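Key result, reporting period 2: structure in, sequence out.
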């Protein structure tokens, strides 16, 4: 591939980010010179293509910098990406370029870090930009993909696929599976023992779930309804994309504030927006062994916190190989002290033994 072709991609997130791991790109632009560049001057939107070019072709020796400079650059471009998504009339090309550059910066930052050899791929399949995963009974693998498909053991489920439902999340509650979408007003409930899909379309509903066996929902106004009774409100949200219920806490991830999520207490009805110092764009969370494990889609890492949300540890790297996460956006507790993480960009599902 020519580097000029790389810079001439369609402005579509399912195509724009391809080939960033390509090792045989030919430099037909020759932008680089014998001069060295100072990394501080590279955080300028007019230089975004040049820095992408430098990282893609491994010309980083031309930049006078240390790792901390590149980390700061990655955070700044991630903040700009977040800001652009947060804006209704955002510049699509600039948004995609900021995210692509963050990917390349993360790969560069993590390239020499030791890989966790105990992390395995769930299978040999590269799913199509997977949004979420659920595993039942150790052998039933459910994967929600970005092309409006849901796969069970790699077979497309006709009732849930190619119907413009754009499902982005799947959760198991006792004897129910519930499918939700952050892109449409559809939700689907499956009573596992009955093997019957119940499809619902409600423009006033953001999320359907079960709490202590009772059908519950989050309305478009942020109200929490349990068994037709309102128990509280989430307050201001912006483009919420993920809801997770862990015990009595409902976690909500949205685009309102960088590095944060909303935590709603289902018992007290109290809510708060928690801002994390360590994470940039937390995308999902799972509970295991009295700790919370979050994934940061920008840094490609898992962050461990205690029950009071004090930081404990972070692990894994950004990349395409085993033991690496590439824009991770879904995480699940699959039992036996293990968690599974879906990487949106690489299409891989990693299994981590905690």
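The corresponding designed sequence is given below.
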């Amino acid at each position: 591939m020519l580097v000029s072709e790389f810079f001439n991609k369609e402005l579509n997130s399912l195509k724009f980010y391809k080939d960033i791991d390509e090792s045989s790109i030919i430099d037909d632009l020759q932008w680089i010179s014998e001069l060295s560049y100072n990394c501080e001057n590279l955080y300028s939107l007019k230089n975004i293509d040049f820095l992408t070019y430098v990282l893609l072709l491994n010309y980083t020796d031309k930049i006078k910098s240390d790792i901390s400079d590149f980390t700061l650059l990655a955070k700044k471009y991630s903040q700009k990406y977040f800001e652009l998504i947060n804006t209704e009339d955002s510049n699509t090309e600039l948004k995609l370029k900021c995210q692509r550059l963050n990917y390349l910066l993360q790969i560069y930052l993590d390239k020499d870090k030791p890989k966790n050899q105990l992390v395995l791929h769930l299978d040999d399949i590269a799913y199509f930009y997977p949004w979420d995963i659920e595993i039942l009974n150790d052998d039933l693998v459910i994967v929600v993909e970005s092309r409006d498909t849901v796969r069970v053991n790699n077979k497309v489920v006709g009732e849930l696929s190619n119907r413009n439902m754009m499902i982005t999340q799947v959760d198991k509650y006792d004897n129910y599976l519930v499918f939700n979408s952050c892109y449409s007003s559809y939700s689907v409930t499956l009573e596992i023992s009955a093997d019957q899909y119940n499809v619902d379309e409600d423009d006033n509903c953001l999320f359907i779930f079960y709490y202590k066996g009772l059908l519950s929902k989050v309305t478009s106004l942020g109200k929490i309804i349990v068994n037709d009774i309102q128990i509280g409100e989430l307050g201001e949200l912006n483009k919420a994309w993920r809801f997770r219920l862990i015990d009595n806490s409902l976690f909500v991830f949205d685009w309102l504030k960088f590095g944060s999520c909303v935590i709603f207490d289902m018992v007290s009805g109290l809510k708060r927006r928690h801002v994390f110092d360590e994470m940039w764009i937390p995308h999902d969370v799972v509970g295991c062994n009295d700790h919370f494990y979050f994934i940061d889609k920008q840094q490609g890492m898992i962050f461990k916190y205690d029950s009071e949300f004090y930081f404990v540890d972070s692990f894994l790297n950004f990349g395409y190989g085993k033991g690496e996460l590439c824009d991770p956006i879904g995480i699940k507790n699959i039992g036996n002290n293990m968690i599974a993480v879906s990487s949106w960009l690489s299409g891989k599902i990693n299994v981590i033994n905690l």
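The first strand starts at residue 37 and ends at 38. The mean pLDDT is 91. This case is discussed further under Risks and Mitigation.
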